[in-house]
Amino acid sequence: MSSVSVLEAKLETESRAFQQLQKELSTAIEARQRLDSQQQENEVVSKEFEHLEDDASIYKLIGPVLVKQEKGEAVGNVKNRLELINKEIERIEKQLQDLTEKSEKKKGELAQLQMQFQQATGKA
């Protein structure tokens, strides 16, 4: 197998790996956006709870049924949900950072391989 064929195969493999990284990065960005939306929604609910009287009726939608819930329980549930969302956001942020670094590294490797491939095909 000639050096051009080897370079071409390696270039193709690295290109596929880069595309996979880009796909993973895109998925992580979508997850981060969903979490942002959930976080904002739960923060709005939490602020609304601050305006309610302690004896106010609060209902939680469970499937097709509204179930009465104590204010303290509802506030606790939303607070816990916000904590979970914030932890998940931190995890996704680390994943995004890692994927971005890997993607940039792979991009550099691809550029280097493309240069080598062009030089090898130019000589052939």
Describe this structure in words.
This protein is mainly α. Helix content is 82%, strand content 8%. The chain has two helices and two strands, in the order αββα. The protein has a two-stranded antiparallel ribbon with strand order 1-2. A hairpin with a 2-residue loop joins β1 and β2. α1 runs antiparallel to α2. The longest helix is centred in the last third of the chain and has 53 residues, at 71-123.
Key traits:
124 residues, mainly alpha, two-stranded antiparallel sheet
SSE order, as H and E? HEEH
Share of helical residues: over 70%
User: Please, what is the oligomeric state?
Assistant: single chain
Task: Tell me, rounded to a whole number, the average pLDDT.
Answer: 93
Give the CA-CA distance, first to last residue. 14 Å
Total number of beta strands? 2
Rg estimate, integer Å: 25 Å
Major sheet strand order: 1-2
Largest sheet: 2 strands, antiparallel
- Secondary-structure-derived class: mainly alpha
Please tally the helical runs, counting DSSP H or I stretches of 4 or more residues. Answer: 2
| Shape type | rod-shaped
Strand content: 5-15%
Low-pLDDT segments, ≥5 res = none
